[in-house]
């Protein structure tokens, strides 16, 4: 998979990433842990946005994952697309090593935490990570969802989740799609 376009400037420091990781609730922690396993599985040099996407897909009961499955984008289909486009193979034995985060993965985690903080929420959930992936239009994960014609489904699922919680959707810059900024009250 070709790396996404350069990220906009901003503080992507390790300290800021650590603060963002510290806000994760149990569902988001499980997704990030699964993302680490995905990166190890592919013997990747760093944890990237596609690993975060694959980690989020592990919880098939999660609302966005459920919508993707209903629209035909099963976790296995998304994994096969990733392998086809990137040339990665999952037969690699997992390795025990610390993996750095790619700039896109850092941006997704930091943006999710910043958004929840801006909404007055102290913990970042899996839906917040989904929203940050959907908003990261230049990231490999968002581009892969777009290639599979699933990015619009992700935005609609997030809007449905937000409506069910009383949040109002806003336009996501550069996409023309409405997604709620605050996933929880």
Automatic annotation (TrEMBL):
Residues 24-147 form the Clp R domain. It holds the Pfam family Clp_N. This is Negative regulator of genetic competence ClpC/MecB. It comes from Mycolicibacterium chlorophenolicum.
């Amino acid at each position: 998979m070709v790396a996404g376009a350069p990220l906009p400037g901003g503080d992507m420091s390790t300290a800021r990433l650590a603060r963002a990781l510290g806000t994760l609730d149990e569902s988001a922690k499980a997704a990030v842990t699964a993302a680490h396993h995905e990166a190890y599985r592919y013997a990747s040099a760093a944890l990237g946005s596609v690993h975060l996407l694959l980690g989020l897909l592990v919880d098939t009961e999660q609302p966005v994952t459920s919508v993707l499955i209903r629209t035909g984008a099963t976790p296995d289909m998304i994994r096969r697309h990733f392998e086809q486009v990137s040339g990665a193979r999952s037969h690699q034995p997992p390795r025990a090593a610390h993996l750095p985060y790619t700039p896109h993965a850092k941006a997704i985690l930091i943006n999710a935490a910043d958004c929840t903080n801006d909404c007055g929420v102290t913990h970042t959930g899996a839906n917040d990570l989904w929203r940050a992936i959907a908003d990261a239009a230049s990231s490999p994960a968002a581009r892969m969802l777009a290639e599979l014609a699933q990015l619009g489904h992700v935005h609609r699922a997030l809007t449905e989740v937000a409506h069910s919680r009383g949040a109002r959707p806003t336009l996501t810059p550069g996409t023309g799609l409405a997604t709620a900024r605050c996933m929880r009250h």
